[in-house]
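Why does residue order matter? Because the sequence determines the fold. Keep that principle in mind as you read this record.
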Amino acid sequence: MRRSSLAARITAVCLVVAAVAAIVAGVVAVSLVRRTGQDVLRRSLSAQADVLAGQVDETGLGSRLGLTKVAQVVRGQGISVVTARPRGALAGDPNAVLAAADAGLTRLGQGGSISVAKTIAGQEYLVEARGVNGGAFALVEPVQMAATTQRVLVRNVLFALAAGLLVAAVAGLLLGRLLARPLRRTAGVAATMRQGRRDLRAPVEGPAEVAEVATAVNELAAALQHSESRQREFLLSVSHELRTPLTAVHGFAESLADGVVTGEDARRAGQTIQRESQRLDRLVSDLLDLARLGADEFRLDLAEIDLADTVRASAEVWHARCAREGVRFQVELPPGPVRGVADARRLRQVLDGLCENALRVTPPGAPITLGLTAPAVLQVRDGGPGLAPEDYAVAFERGVLNAKYRGKRPVGSGVGLALAHGLATRMGGAITAGPAPEGGAAFTITLRPVT
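Structure:
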């Protein structure tokens, strides 16, 4: 379904607002003009009635000549004169007589006055009656001038409505295009981002809301650019990590195939191939686990376990490996059991990964410590070179340490630390990095204790 443009919607809204405003203003204006017109007519008619009452009081209502002249004068203004004789008879235009009678002209005494509006046969009349010497009279005027004025006003309102709609259409179209221009530019930048470019930025202009959209798109582009840069660095580090054992496996396998090495050399070549293939297998497994870590199907078998048993099992393996490298391995355990909530297999995977990283950077003669303290805190500390203070906060981000320390010291791909952080978090715990008293780095795992 094709959606209408922003300019079209703004134009439509402006038209509706202009139409409603013109109609409301017209209705209010018609009512006010009609009321004002009636008030003006009433005041004018009242003034004429007062003047006529003053003249009649001097000559008496019986002066036909005087009344005839007055009737001729006011008749040209659309006003009728109705007289009431002492016997109660009314004389004048029939509708004017009915209006005057309804207003109570026959009951009006000398010096009294009546100022009302009466409707006769669908026509509204203004009645100004005065009691004078010898009877009473009334000036009766149909409210026709107000109706005429109302028709003129309606025409003017319709003209104003048409002019307002035209102005609103032009203003809405210009406003819509003005607002849509930065949005179109932002949409163009988003379209180029979809095609893979990350170097373009949308201009931050227009109203605050439109500028916020452009800013959000720019921030998204910068975040994508940073994320993709980090991914490329991570892939480079993983490729480098894979290439080293693959080169060893390929070289020794080629030597065995060509018969270059035999006897004891062949056995050592086979051991090297086995060792490097295991290293490859661990790296690939860590990559797969890291990729599956955020998926719903990645399940952990959490249970209440004795953490000391897991630490002892890991220590048996790493004591032997550290001894081969000339590194002192030591274990710190409390006298009794320490129970916590964890997946024993995954916790062992985390400890093995941390110990492998520690062994990679720890020189011969320096220590590696695997410790456990209550309530449920595990530590792997090393006597290696450690990290810069600012690097401990980003130690678990993939590829960060590899990118900084590659070429300066033995480094891994960063998969192990990222996986350790993910596993510790999924087990309901936390893992942090900081300096170790042994001189290197300390990685602390805090799990949920069993109370």
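The CA atoms of residues 256 and 266 lie 7 Å apart.
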